[in-house]
Amino acid sequence: MKAIIFDIRSFSVHDGPGIRTSFFFKGCPLRCTWCHNPESHSAEIEFVCATKKMERHSLRETVPIGESVSIETAIARVKADRLFFEDSGGGITLSGGEPLMQHQFAKELLMAANALDIHTAIDTCGFATEKIFQETVAYAKLVLYDLKIINSALHKKFTGQDNQLILNNFKWLQQQNKAMIIRIPLIENITDTPENFEAIHTLLSSSKNIQRIDLLPFHASANQKYLKLNKVYHHANSPSYPAEKSEKALDFFHSLAPIVSIGA
Predict the structure, then answer these.
(1) Which of 93, 144, 149, 157 has the least C-beta neighbours within 10 A?
(2) Which residues sit opposite 46 in a β-bridge?
Protein backbone atom coordinates (compact mmCIF):
# COMPACT_ATOMS: atom_id res chain seq x y z
CA MET A 1 0.00 0.00 0.00
CA LYS A 2 1.28 3.45 -0.95
CA ALA A 3 0.27 7.09 -0.58
CA ILE A 4 1.37 10.32 -2.23
CA ILE A 5 3.09 12.40 0.43
CA PHE A 6 4.60 15.85 -0.18
CA ASP A 7 6.48 16.17 3.10
CA ILE A 8 7.43 14.18 6.18
CA ARG A 9 8.53 16.55 8.90
CA SER A 10 10.28 15.40 12.05
CA PHE A 11 10.58 17.56 15.19
CA SER A 12 7.27 19.27 14.49
CA VAL A 13 5.82 21.11 17.50
CA HIS A 14 2.72 22.74 15.98
CA ASP A 15 0.64 19.68 15.08
CA GLY A 16 -0.25 18.30 18.50
CA PRO A 17 1.43 17.70 21.86
CA GLY A 18 5.15 17.11 22.22
CA ILE A 19 7.62 16.54 19.41
CA ARG A 20 5.90 14.96 16.44
CA THR A 21 6.52 13.50 13.03
CA SER A 22 3.97 14.95 10.61
CA PHE A 23 3.00 13.29 7.34
CA PHE A 24 1.64 15.74 4.75
CA PHE A 25 -0.66 13.98 2.27
CA LYS A 26 -1.23 15.40 -1.20
CA GLY A 27 -4.78 16.04 -2.28
CA CYS A 28 -7.49 18.27 -0.83
CA PRO A 29 -11.23 18.39 -1.66
CA LEU A 30 -11.46 22.08 -0.76
CA ARG A 31 -10.10 25.09 -2.61
CA CYS A 32 -10.03 27.75 0.08
CA THR A 33 -9.24 31.07 -1.57
CA TRP A 34 -6.66 31.87 1.12
CA CYS A 35 -4.89 28.48 1.15
CA HIS A 36 -1.13 28.84 1.71
CA ASN A 37 -0.31 25.28 0.60
CA PRO A 38 -1.23 25.07 -3.10
CA GLU A 39 1.21 22.17 -3.46
CA SER A 40 -1.29 20.12 -1.44
CA HIS A 41 -4.24 20.63 -3.79
CA SER A 42 -3.61 17.91 -6.34
CA ALA A 43 -3.47 14.28 -5.23
CA GLU A 44 -0.90 13.61 -7.96
CA ILE A 45 2.85 14.17 -7.99
CA GLU A 46 3.55 17.55 -9.64
CA PHE A 47 6.73 18.95 -11.14
CA VAL A 48 8.05 22.50 -10.90
CA CYS A 49 11.16 24.30 -12.11
CA ALA A 50 13.67 25.27 -9.46
CA THR A 51 17.05 26.95 -9.41
CA LYS A 52 19.94 25.06 -7.86
CA LYS A 53 23.05 27.06 -7.04
CA MET A 54 26.37 25.35 -7.70
CA GLU A 55 29.35 27.52 -6.68
CA ARG A 56 29.23 30.42 -9.16
CA HIS A 57 26.62 28.91 -11.42
CA SER A 58 22.88 28.37 -11.25
CA LEU A 59 21.23 25.30 -12.69
CA ARG A 60 17.58 25.09 -13.62
CA GLU A 61 16.08 21.72 -12.85
CA THR A 62 12.69 20.08 -12.63
CA VAL A 63 11.84 18.80 -9.17
CA PRO A 64 8.86 16.75 -8.01
CA ILE A 65 6.35 17.85 -5.41
CA GLY A 66 5.31 14.68 -3.66
CA GLU A 67 6.48 11.11 -3.73
CA SER A 68 4.95 7.67 -3.51
CA VAL A 69 5.59 6.35 0.00
CA SER A 70 4.90 2.76 1.05
CA ILE A 71 3.23 1.95 4.35
CA GLU A 72 6.37 0.03 5.32
CA THR A 73 8.53 3.10 4.75
CA ALA A 74 6.15 5.31 6.73
CA ILE A 75 6.09 2.89 9.66
CA ALA A 76 9.90 2.64 9.60
CA ARG A 77 10.07 6.45 9.83
CA VAL A 78 7.73 6.38 12.83
CA LYS A 79 9.86 3.77 14.56
CA ALA A 80 13.03 5.75 13.86
CA ASP A 81 11.58 8.82 15.61
CA ARG A 82 10.06 6.88 18.50
CA LEU A 83 12.63 8.01 21.08
CA PHE A 84 11.71 11.67 20.52
CA PHE A 85 8.04 10.86 21.08
CA GLU A 86 8.71 9.04 24.34
CA ASP A 87 10.86 11.85 25.74
CA SER A 88 8.41 14.63 24.84
CA GLY A 89 4.97 13.03 24.96
CA GLY A 90 4.70 13.44 21.20
CA GLY A 91 3.67 11.17 18.37
CA ILE A 92 2.60 11.31 14.76
CA THR A 93 0.18 13.64 13.00
CA LEU A 94 -1.41 13.01 9.61
CA SER A 95 -1.94 16.29 7.81
CA GLY A 96 -2.08 17.62 4.28
CA GLY A 97 -3.80 18.47 2.11
CA GLU A 98 -6.46 16.19 3.44
CA PRO A 99 -5.30 12.78 4.71
CA LEU A 100 -8.81 11.35 4.42
CA MET A 101 -8.50 11.51 0.63
CA GLN A 102 -6.07 8.61 1.06
CA HIS A 103 -7.99 7.12 3.94
CA GLN A 104 -6.92 3.49 3.64
CA PHE A 105 -3.25 4.42 4.00
CA ALA A 106 -4.07 6.89 6.77
CA LYS A 107 -6.01 4.25 8.68
CA GLU A 108 -3.21 1.69 8.36
CA LEU A 109 -0.61 4.18 9.56
CA LEU A 110 -2.72 5.22 12.55
CA MET A 111 -3.33 1.60 13.46
CA ALA A 112 0.39 0.78 13.21
CA ALA A 113 1.32 3.71 15.46
CA ASN A 114 -1.33 2.73 17.99
CA ALA A 115 0.08 -0.80 18.05
CA LEU A 116 3.46 0.72 18.91
CA ASP A 117 1.82 2.74 21.71
CA ILE A 118 2.62 6.00 19.90
CA HIS A 119 0.23 8.94 20.21
CA THR A 120 -1.76 9.57 17.05
CA ALA A 121 -3.40 12.70 15.65
CA ILE A 122 -5.07 13.63 12.40
CA ASP A 123 -5.46 17.15 10.99
CA THR A 124 -8.59 17.27 8.84
CA CYS A 125 -10.99 19.69 7.22
CA GLY A 126 -13.75 17.16 7.91
CA PHE A 127 -14.88 16.91 4.29
CA ALA A 128 -15.30 13.15 3.85
CA THR A 129 -18.18 10.72 3.83
CA GLU A 130 -19.32 9.78 7.30
CA LYS A 131 -18.22 6.17 6.73
CA ILE A 132 -14.67 7.10 5.70
CA PHE A 133 -14.43 9.74 8.41
CA GLN A 134 -15.57 7.52 11.25
CA GLU A 135 -13.64 4.42 10.19
CA THR A 136 -10.38 6.39 9.93
CA VAL A 137 -10.63 9.00 12.67
CA ALA A 138 -11.62 6.34 15.19
CA TYR A 139 -7.92 5.35 15.27
CA ALA A 140 -6.66 8.86 16.11
CA LYS A 141 -6.39 9.85 19.74
CA LEU A 142 -6.55 13.55 18.84
CA VAL A 143 -8.28 15.39 16.00
CA LEU A 144 -7.13 18.78 14.75
CA TYR A 145 -10.33 20.06 13.16
CA ASP A 146 -10.65 23.03 10.82
CA LEU A 147 -13.70 25.23 11.16
CA LYS A 148 -13.83 27.96 8.56
CA ILE A 149 -17.31 29.22 7.68
CA ILE A 150 -20.59 28.00 9.15
CA ASN A 151 -22.96 29.47 6.57
CA SER A 152 -23.27 26.80 3.88
CA ALA A 153 -23.58 29.12 0.88
CA LEU A 154 -20.60 31.23 1.95
CA HIS A 155 -18.59 28.11 2.71
CA LYS A 156 -19.15 26.89 -0.84
CA LYS A 157 -18.32 30.31 -2.25
CA PHE A 158 -14.94 30.53 -0.54
CA THR A 159 -13.90 26.86 -0.35
CA GLY A 160 -15.65 25.30 -3.34
CA GLN A 161 -17.66 22.83 -1.26
CA ASP A 162 -20.81 22.70 0.85
CA ASN A 163 -20.10 22.20 4.56
CA GLN A 164 -22.82 19.70 5.54
CA LEU A 165 -20.39 16.77 5.74
CA ILE A 166 -18.03 18.89 7.83
CA LEU A 167 -20.75 19.79 10.32
CA ASN A 168 -22.07 16.20 10.46
CA ASN A 169 -18.60 14.85 11.15
CA PHE A 170 -18.01 17.48 13.81
CA LYS A 171 -21.23 16.41 15.53
CA TRP A 172 -19.99 12.80 15.53
CA LEU A 173 -16.71 13.90 17.15
CA GLN A 174 -18.72 15.61 19.87
CA GLN A 175 -20.78 12.47 20.45
CA GLN A 176 -17.63 10.33 20.66
CA ASN A 177 -16.06 12.76 23.12
CA LYS A 178 -12.97 12.68 20.90
CA ALA A 179 -10.18 15.02 22.02
CA MET A 180 -10.02 17.97 19.63
CA ILE A 181 -7.96 21.00 18.74
CA ILE A 182 -10.05 23.46 16.75
CA ARG A 183 -8.30 25.53 14.09
CA ILE A 184 -9.95 28.70 12.84
CA PRO A 185 -8.36 30.68 9.99
CA LEU A 186 -8.66 34.45 10.40
CA ILE A 187 -9.38 35.91 6.97
CA GLU A 188 -10.55 39.51 6.88
CA ASN A 189 -14.19 39.98 5.88
CA ILE A 190 -14.56 36.26 5.15
CA THR A 191 -14.13 34.14 8.26
CA ASP A 192 -13.94 36.96 10.82
CA THR A 193 -17.38 38.49 10.26
CA PRO A 194 -19.51 38.92 13.40
CA GLU A 195 -22.05 36.46 12.00
CA ASN A 196 -19.47 33.75 11.39
CA PHE A 197 -17.73 34.25 14.74
CA GLU A 198 -21.08 34.00 16.52
CA ALA A 199 -21.99 30.84 14.59
CA ILE A 200 -18.65 29.19 15.41
CA HIS A 201 -18.97 30.23 19.05
CA THR A 202 -22.45 28.70 19.25
CA LEU A 203 -21.25 25.47 17.62
CA LEU A 204 -18.31 25.11 20.01
CA SER A 205 -20.08 26.20 23.18
CA SER A 206 -21.72 22.78 23.66
CA SER A 207 -18.45 20.84 23.22
CA LYS A 208 -16.73 19.39 26.29
CA ASN A 209 -13.84 17.75 24.46
CA ILE A 210 -11.98 20.74 23.02
CA GLN A 211 -8.43 20.87 24.36
CA ARG A 212 -7.49 24.08 22.65
CA ILE A 213 -8.41 26.53 19.91
CA ASP A 214 -5.77 27.80 17.50
CA LEU A 215 -6.55 31.02 15.66
CA LEU A 216 -4.59 31.19 12.42
CA PRO A 217 -4.19 34.73 11.03
CA PHE A 218 -3.73 35.04 7.28
CA HIS A 219 -0.18 35.78 6.21
CA ALA A 220 0.83 36.77 2.69
CA SER A 221 3.61 34.26 2.18
CA ALA A 222 2.30 31.89 -0.47
CA ASN A 223 2.68 34.02 -3.61
CA GLN A 224 5.80 32.29 -4.87
CA LYS A 225 4.28 28.85 -4.41
CA TYR A 226 1.32 29.77 -6.60
CA LEU A 227 3.57 31.30 -9.24
CA LYS A 228 5.74 28.17 -9.43
CA LEU A 229 2.64 26.02 -9.86
CA ASN A 230 1.02 28.42 -12.36
CA LYS A 231 -2.02 28.76 -10.14
CA VAL A 232 -4.13 31.83 -9.44
CA TYR A 233 -3.83 33.16 -5.89
CA HIS A 234 -6.91 35.18 -4.99
CA HIS A 235 -5.16 36.80 -2.03
CA ALA A 236 -1.88 37.67 -3.74
CA ASN A 237 -2.28 41.34 -2.82
CA SER A 238 -3.96 40.89 0.54
CA PRO A 239 -2.11 42.20 3.61
CA SER A 240 -1.36 40.01 6.59
CA TYR A 241 -4.13 39.82 9.17
CA PRO A 242 -3.99 42.77 11.60
CA ALA A 243 -2.57 41.91 15.03
CA GLU A 244 -5.23 43.96 16.82
CA LYS A 245 -7.99 41.92 15.16
CA SER A 246 -6.25 38.70 16.19
CA GLU A 247 -6.32 39.88 19.80
CA LYS A 248 -10.03 40.66 19.55
CA ALA A 249 -10.67 37.17 18.18
CA LEU A 250 -8.67 35.74 21.06
CA ASP A 251 -10.87 37.58 23.54
CA PHE A 252 -14.01 36.43 21.75
CA PHE A 253 -13.18 32.70 21.88
CA HIS A 254 -11.16 32.60 25.12
CA SER A 255 -13.89 30.99 27.25
CA LEU A 256 -14.42 27.98 24.96
CA ALA A 257 -11.26 26.01 25.69
CA PRO A 258 -8.52 25.73 28.33
CA ILE A 259 -6.06 27.17 25.80
CA VAL A 260 -6.81 29.63 23.02
CA SER A 261 -3.80 30.78 21.03
CA ILE A 262 -2.83 32.85 18.04
CA GLY A 263 -0.83 30.72 15.63
CA ALA A 264 2.08 31.72 13.45
Answers:
(1) 157
(2) 65
Determine the residue type at 239. Answer: P
Q: Are 91 and 29 in contact (CB under 8 A)?
A: no
d(CA 123, CA 93): 7
The HSE-up count of residue 229 (CA atoms within 13 Å, CB side) is 19
Identify any residues that bridge with 66 across adjacent strands, giving them in sequence order: none
pLDDT in tens, 86-118: 889 999 999 999 999 999 999 999 999 999 999
pLDDT for residue 165 is more than 80: yes
How far apart CA 98 and CA 41 sit, in angstroms, is 9
Distance of CA 82 to the CA centre of its chain: 22
How many CB atoms lie under 10 A from the CB of residue 76? 11
Query: What pLDDT score does 239 carry?
Result: 92
